[in-house]
Amino acid sequence: MLTKRIVPCLDVRNRKVTKGVKFQNNIDLGDPIEMAVAYSDGGADELVFYDITASAERRPIDIDMVKEIGKVVHIPFAVGGGIENLDDMYRVLLAGAEKVSVNSLAVRNPNVIAEGARIFGAQCIVLGMDPVKVDDHTKYPSGYEITTRGFRERTGMDALEWAKRAQDLGAGEIVVNSVDADGTRAGFELTLTKLISTSVGVPVVASGGAGTPQHLIDVFKLAHADAGIVASMTHTGDYTIAGIKKELDAAGVPVRKKW
Hints:
Helices cover 33% and strands 26% of the residues. With 259 residues, the protein is of the alpha/beta class. Strands 1-4-5-6-7-10-11-12 form an 8-stranded parallel barrel, surrounded by 6 helices. The chain is globular. The model has no long low-confidence stretch (mean pLDDT 91).
């Protein structure tokens, strides 16, 4: 049986890990390199780094930071934010990342998913999506609209349709980051996560809302996610990766055991 992955997410702004609620009111929490090492040594299965202001500021990702991370962690990691073309993907992978996450770029130029998968392999290309709940189910059958540039722009795209299209283009993984749940620590967006995870054939990563180990148990058992992203609940020290995995194991969720 495939194990479920616990993936700490480090949102980075000005070389500091930062966290907000629903993409707003961010506060700085620490050094990304130090936190990456702690998570790598502490049992995390993977890491993901988002340069959260790169796309909004129309600047490239901090490639020197990616290189530093690649030198000190011993688990796979993905990088997103500020990826504008295939050359950026190549630079990120060459710097040590195993995966590249595209979000705003993929909406503007969906073919970059296909080209990235063709050149680097589908396993390297992650679609990050920031869906928000909407009332118009006629225009948005899933009930969720895709947003970009850190929830700054609406796209008019239905979340489930976009997930299916991205898979067809060659995305090897899809991260469903609920804008409504982001940073709330009130639980994952189970409805949309389940809708996507049962409609596509690639791994689906739940993101936004993790606050307790039970939230992870729920998203794995009820929404069939392949991985769960954590941030606030572990960044603050309220929970450890090892502690979360022990609770998942006790609940019958298969995890890689390192404690």
